[in-house]
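Quick one, T. Sequence first:
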Amino acid sequence: MEHLIRRFAGLMILGSLALGYFVSPYWFLLTAFVGLNLTQSSFTKWCLLENILRKMKK
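Structure tokens:
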């Protein structure tokens, strides 16, 4: 599960950086959100994506 979360976060960051560069700088806000979510997750040990993936697995 952890590798899926890391892969998703990495793809979101790379995608939002590309969109921010080529489309609109406002996409960099998504990059910041993903970074904040990763930081929050490291402190609280809670990740929304992990909950979503667990429910999808059932």
